[in-house]
Amino acid sequence: MAKKFPLNPAHPERICWGCDRYCAADDLRCGNGAGRTQHPMESWGEDWATWEGEEECSAGKAVAQADC
Question: Residue 21 falls within a domain, yes or no?
């Protein structure tokens, strides 16, 4: 069973969020060759979990962000 994903951790920069191991940022054990994966809060702010992924494009209709 996967661990519950924290919505707003106290220090997200200390952990790699790329898999269910949640390794320390300096101890990446998954071995996928990548660097530390950021928590969504670090990229999109503390309200990232309430964002629905839709916005208005220049055409004036609500569409998925990838369609803009």
Answer: yes
Residue 51 lies inside a defined structural domain of this protein:
no
Angle at 67 between CA 48 and CA 17, to 5 degrees: 35
Q: List residues bridging with 54 in a β-sheet.
A: 64
Report yes or no on 33 lying in a domain: yes
At residue 32 the predicted structure's pLDDT band, cuts being 50, 70 and 90, is low
pLDDT value for 58 = 56
pLDDT of residue 57: 55
Instruction: Between 68 and 21, name the one with better pLDDT.
Output: 21
Sign for the CA dihedral angle at 37, 45, 51, 8 comes to positive
Q: Which domain holds residue 18?
A: 11-44
Question: What tokens appear for 67 in the block?
Answer: 């369609």
Give the total number of structural domains in the chain: 1
